[in-house]
């Protein structure tokens, strides 16, 4: 092990093991991450909203650098609010923001006991649904397309042509699938990571323990490796 990696490892272990649950380990994007939150990244831990939203914030931050697609990320409460209230319930969420100026929109979705990801690619006019348990989300894609139509009409006075858009739930042969009941949040974060770099999704379930530890370091340092 090189010294840098050893230093990182001891830091990650300390984040899990020393101190109180309420200790604050990172603060950014109007979010505070405590040791208790970080501990959801332990093996087989269930990632919470705070970890998910913080990681999305890191992806958006990175996308401001040259060479990356421009990324906008909704927070994890957006879709449940949209699906229960329609566009008017979330109209204020994009106050002062034109989401259509971005290349990629990430929508992390919390389905009671499962995390999934919806990705809007405004360059390609595609809406894709990523589920590491292989379930279809065609109705979710339709709900978000309807939202985009209303958002475009309201904010830009431009009609989107729904027929120009491709909606697709990714199949189990297209994206890696989790092999336990707890890695869905990590899968969502890594789907979003690869997509927001325009990279093919080539990781496997075997990478999850490594990704979890890496995410601890990235969140504490507010910097993606």
UniProtKB/TrEMBL annotation:
Q: What is this protein called?
A: SENP2 protease
Per UniProt, the keywords (alphabetical) are:
Hydrolase, Protease, Thiol protease
Instruction: Identify the residues that the record assigns to the Ubiquitin-like protease family profile domain, covering every copy.
Output: 31-195
| A single BP term in Gene Ontology | protein desumoylation
**Which family does the entry's similarity section mention?**
Belongs to the peptidase C48 family.
Q: Which GO terms describe its molecular function?
A: deSUMOylase activity
**One Pfam family hit:** Peptidase_C48
Classification via InterPro entries: Papain-like_cys_pep_sf, Peptidase_C48_C
Source taxon at top rank = Eukaryota
Alphabetized Gene3D superfamilies for the sequence: Adenoviral Proteinase, Chain A (3.40.395.10)
**Species:** Urocynchramus pylzowi
> Gene Ontology terms, cellular component aspect?
nucleus
């Amino acid at each position: 092990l090189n010294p840098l990696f050893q230093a990182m490892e001891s830091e990650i272990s300390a984040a899990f093991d020393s101190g109180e649950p309420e200790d604050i380990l990172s603060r950014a994007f109007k979010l505070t991450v405590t040791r208790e939150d970080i501990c959801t990244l332990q093996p087989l831990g269930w990632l919470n909203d705070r970890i998910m939203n913080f990681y999305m914030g890191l992806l958006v931050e990175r996308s401001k650098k040259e060479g990356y697609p421009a990324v906008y990320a909704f927070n994890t409460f957006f879709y449940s609010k949209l699906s229960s209230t329609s566009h008017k319930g979330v109209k204020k969420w994009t106050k002062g923001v034109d989401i259509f100026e971005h290349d990629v929109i990430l929508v992390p979705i919390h389905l009671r006991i499962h995390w999934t990801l919806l990705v809007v690619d405004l360059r390609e006019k595609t809406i894709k649904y990523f589920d590491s348990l292989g379930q279809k989300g065609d109705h979710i894609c339709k709900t978000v397309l309807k939202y985009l139509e209303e958002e475009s009409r309201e904010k830009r006075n431009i009609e989107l042509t729904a027929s120009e858009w491709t909606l697709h739930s990714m199949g189990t042969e297209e994206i890696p699938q989790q092999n336990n009941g707890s890695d869905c949040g990590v899968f969502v974060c890594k789907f979003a990571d690869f997509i927001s770099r325009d990279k093919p999704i080539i990781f496997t379930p075997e990478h999850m323990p490594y990704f979890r530890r890496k995410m601890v370091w990235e969140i504490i340092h507010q910097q993606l490796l």
